[in-house]
Structures
1.
Amino acid sequence: MLDNLNLLSLAPILNVQLLLDGMFVGAIFVLAAYGLALVWGVMNVKNLAQGEYVIMGGYFAWHLSTYGLHPILSIPIIAAVMFGMGWIVYLTIIKWVIGRDLFTSLLATFGIALVVQQALNLAYGPDVRTAESGFEIRSLFGGLVTVADIKLISFGLCILLAACVVLFMKRSRMGQAIRATAQDARAARVMGIDTERVYAFTYALNAAICGAAGVLVSMIWVIQPFYGVPHSIRAFVIVTAAGLGNLPGVIMAGFGLGVAEQYSGFVLGAEFQQATAVGLLVVILVWRQIQMSRYRQVVE
Amino acid sequence: MQNDTTPAWVYIVIATAGVVAPLLFPAYTNQIAFLWLMVLFALTWDLVGGQMGYNSLGNIFYFGAGMYISAVVQVGMFTDVGTYTSARGGEQLVLGYFDYFYSLGAGVLLAAVGCVIFAVILSRIMFGLRGPYFAIGTLGVALAARELAGTWEWIGGGSGIAMPVYPGLPDEKSLVFYGIFFMLAVVTFVCVRWLYSTRFAQAINAIRDDEAKAEAMGIHTLRHKTVAWSVSAFFLGMSGAVFGNLTGFVEPLEVAFPTVTFGIFMVVMSLLGGKGTLWGPVIGATLFHVIKEVTWTYLLGWQWVALGVLIIVNVVFFQDGIMGWMQSRWPERFGITVDASMSSRGGKRKGGAGA
Amino acid sequence: MKYTMKAGLTALAAGLLALSSAQAMVDGDTIVLGSAISLTGKYSSNGVDTQNGYDFAVKTINDAGGVTVDGKQYKLAVKYYDDESTPARTAQLLERVINQDGVKYILGPYSSATTIAAAPVTEKYQVPMIEAEGASRALFNKGYKYIFAVLSTSEQYLASAIGLAAEIAEKNGKNPSDLKVAMVFENDAFSLDVRAGVVEDMEKYGMKAVIDDKMPADLSDISATLTKVKALKPDVLVISGHNKGAVTAARQIAELQVDVPIIAMTHCEGAKIVEQFGKDAEGYLCPTQWAETLSYTDDTFGSAADFDKNFKAAYPDYQTVPYQTAQAAAAVLVWKDAFERANSFDTDKVRDAIAATDMMTFYGGIKFSEAGNNVAKPMVLRQVQDGQYNVVAPSKWASHPVEWPRSTD
């Protein structure tokens, strides 16, 4: 461990590689986490199937790429398909969960996650897949730092997607309705907003965002039907750390988690990389709790 | 106080069935033993989740912790744990009857004690979290334990620990472990039943219904929560210790901390039977176990889809569980009097959650 | 008097048991083998390869007339359960296969972890298991009597790559003890065993480990570890983590342009790295239990090349036949051979017949040691050269010279 720290100080350029890699994957985490924050904030549903939607998007991209369609071009198609699927899942399941006991949504979406995993496994088999983008790889600083073009592009796409969603939320009628519902559903209903439609739209939008994130994951990482769980955990870590309705916070936390994973993998070893995400989740919760109890004392 | 109005014949039937079943169906001994384990899972989960309203997704942590504690104790009594677990893989521990049961007893006992200590520590940390945060936090603890156990080489890391070999014949081993699981389940049930007849149950029910008010009424909420979770951990730790010995091989991912299988099953079983009741978890566990064994045999490849659908349907459309349904169907049998004017159940769904 | 009675009773009980089980395990003219295999979960892709190997072998053997025992022809059949890649489930399901279904001949599950869980069960019921996919040495130091493995044990997987590296170093006038090795292994029983073999051989040559990382089971990113590799410039990089480890590593090695003269990894074929990554996979050293280019033959399947051709004809999805499939088929072949030599369905006689196996198959020689592992077949090391897997070591089987250093363009 000390050796590895030493290595970082001897070759500081390695920090650049770790930071870049962390940011690139962090950007994708942000997408999935933002979707979660949206659903959680607007309809108070904690979607444990988040990671499964990501993987599902990845598989669709891989599937289309076998017909020769480039994964990046397939993003709109997949977003649309996932949107439709999200709407259907809302109508059949999520609709009945809204407003229920907080625990219900966790378990119900866990059930959805199980079904999606197995459906993917039955449809595509358990093989590990990757969708090839065919882009070049750049090396900087005499080869010490490499940046795959696809990572840069996916980073750009993440920003573009996030910007689109933000603009949509700020400018469009539906976006305003969603924000109004998040603030006070009853008041929104009184004002004539069809909250049922808002909920359906929000859940579908989340699925679409996850699907798009999944396309990017399939191009820069690998996908497998059972790889959704770590993505779900990451989304929860980020949202718990950032809080709901706090987009800058989600972005910072997403990048932070991506970078933290890279550093723990480098310094402590790959065996601690996954534990870092989970460990951070517990630490953040405990830290929030301490904050809360301070707040309570002040109130008292 | 929830007075148990169950007629005595129910207990007699269950006790007889428990004793006779392995003799009648010797081939199914292990499956029935697992049924008792499931009953224990559901009962211990419901104590904290159903009766106290703290929905834990990480109770499996105590199961795995107990398993590892007993493994280390049992192996450590006869040889050096570090050498035994090193990648070279030592010889398997072969013990005589006395040594085996002596070390098993010590392992199970220390597992229970160790888990209670863990529960007391975790209570301090986790019980400040409310609602979904508690569920996610406990899930995080279980997942973190599973990752960290895999990196700890002294306890075998990812390769795990082979448990001492049972000295006798296989059928005898099955029967002995069946007996242990049956006894554990019975003791857990008796203990929980007794707890539910005391003021303690009222206190934790009050915590579930409104924690702030409970506190205002002078209930020391943290202490009650700690005790409830410790009782749960005590039995889970013991069951983990015994399970490790039955399996003969302890490994972090699938055997010790099966978070998405056993960890979720315990919740689903309680919900299926009806949470917050004495018999709900027992009925839920039995039904779930039977469904699972049947689908695992006849729906090969689709069993997880079936399980996912079962969870969704159960949670979304049938959340009161079997006991809850029976209570609203025949309230008079449960000593509940219904005021006809109050019993219209319209407007049950609350409005939007509001952030 | 008392003792004779007891002995008589025991014999009677044993006889009854044998009688009742004999009916269940041979159903009419079909011999039923049982297996709990990973059809879902993290090992499922290799699990399916294994199942296909079993099925293909059963079909081939049945088409060729089946198994002749006591002058009568029997067909083979396999009863499968899905262990979901979890060892606890394997043990449970095998109990069910043996106890409830009355199957007394077991084909192994996929992976060492599940086989480790399976072995105590077969041992307990004294039912022989021929397994083809559990290579961990933890299986063969416990004194088990009923487990027989047709494959080479896991510590041999990558040890040959260390030997090859030492050979190359000497040829170039370097001292093998100056070599630096980077190790990346998945944190599970199988991969850790592979690691143990590598460590042992490194010690023999006095090589130094500069990186020793372990991948968690569901990690799909090892770029941090590979960044370390780039910084420390080792002479050898060894990787093992089943199919997903191979895919993740192959992708990220290319992406980070990791330039190590020797890269050796397990599961290249199963992970289809040549198909998925093309020239980026050039030069990887891949240990294999079996290769279709080897000159082994038997009467049922023909030569290794025949097996390769016929299997691909039966399962057109496969572009290369993974060795997991070949060894699964070999395990079924050993069952046939053992039944015929035992000329009986008595589990003890069959067990003794298996223990006495000494045969040549398309998969290589099969002869079991006292502990149950196959000692008649070496591992071979293949290198990806122009998209082909060519055998480069050991020299007895080498068809091509090794390309060193691995070219990165």
2.
Amino acid sequence: MKDVSFGQYYPVSSFVHRMDPRLKILFLIAFITAIFLATSFYGLAICAGVLLLIILLSRVPVGKVFREIRGILFIVILTSVLNIFFYRGETEYWSWKFLSITREGLIFSAFLVCRLILLVTCSSMLTYTTSPVELTDGIESLLTPLKWIRFPVHELALIMSIALRFIPILMDETERIKNAQKARGADFESGGLIKRIRAIVPVLIPLLLSALRRAEELGDAMDARCYSGGRKRTKYKKLRLTWRDFVGFLVGAAVVTGVVLLRVYGVGTL
Amino acid sequence: MRIVAEHLSYTYNADTLFATAALKDVSLTVEEGEFFGIIGHTGSGKSTFVQHLNGLIRVPSSMKRYKKKKPKKGQALPPQTVLTVGEYDLTDKKTNFRELRKHVGMVFQYPEYQLFAETVKEDVAFGLKNFSEKKPTNEEITEAVRAALEVVGLNYNEIAKKSPFELSGGQKRRVAIAGVIVTRPEILVLDEPAAGLDPVGKREIMELLHKLHKEWCKTVIIVSHDMDEISENCTRAAVFSEGSVRYVLPPHELFQKREELRALGLDIPLTARLCEKLEQAGVKLDCDFTIDDFVAKLSALKEGKA
């Protein structure tokens, strides 16, 4: 009923949405590697082009995607300012003591800004097009090899999915308790820092208690149904690779190869 | 304080993919001094409606909407949303909502889960301290807390110094209700006050509400889906379904509409069901659907026959 929208998942059906989450995670890793390997604007342009294609294919509104950038605006501004003033270059435009603005500095900071924006946008595309449940399924499947060294992959995935599952419930609960205390005159919006922190206590304690209660209830319910760890458990939703994932794989490989070639031949290297 | 709502609508997550209309054009008036019932399924909008009453959910200003979409000439004006509680206009942003909340006490579902303080006394005093203009003295607090605990049927000397978490479920609920009524609100709204209690606990809570209605709060509004609770206690009741108000009637008229209520997926009180059975057997029993009246009419009928 309440604010069910949590996280960023944008629930539409599209080419990108229907891809296998495992492939999407691997694709993201490859894509981020490519962004870091790129040493020229050409390399970044390849990444940006592919990313734009993905955004268009995913049917997530472009404006929504770029709104993500606001979150890192501070870091973007900080890095660009630092680089503009501290980058040592040859063509100096202005200098004062140890600060200087150079042509190279300007270009390099523009490069960094592009890189940052690309990084954030591509990561948020994963969360826009993959539901939390798919994501944990994908991670679990990808981590399976670690079972060889007795790493509790299934348990870890279970913890993750339970945690994700509980976020909306606890958010709802927070809202309820907050409303209840507001009805008793609690004030969360005014006052200084100390006063605001103190105002949280009447919400935090009931919330903590309710989280513990729910955890206990869930544990009991799982026990009652004889739940036990990972061995021999089958999945309700089996992950399966399709032609979409093959396309994704090709595109990912092409991007990395392209960027690496540009780097090796030094095309446009800064 | 009188509550007037006209053309009230509310949508959760408006302008997103998850938009759900919770209230559609609700108009409802609750007079001062009523014991008012609100009936409806989960998701019928009843909780959303009561949360409007103390400004936990704000009404989007209707004036703003006019500015946004100026109606063309000849086009009918959209109905103006009205929501007032006493002299407070809740469609006005400048209304002092904290002051309003002092007059409209709200007891949520399972209120015992909002207890947080170290002692019962502190917890009950929470609202008192928040709402007071100047810091209340210790004596004032003790006095008010004592009175509130006593009216909900708890012994101050026994309980005030205890941690609220070591009390029994029923006691916790009483403490939580005391924490709301301690500021003596004129209107008391309770969302499913008897939920999760055993039959005795239920009866005790309803008795408590009657006591409060007589001695503390002029108006009591309960949200419930227990029809017996409604027929026994309320002066009038509103039926919510899918975000709209279907009926606003006194229980003895409302529960005549057995078929209409069933069509909405709602139950009818035990007494109304018994009346129905009697009717099928050819006996017409005219009662107001409270158990006392039902028993009295039935015995009168029996004696008349004997």
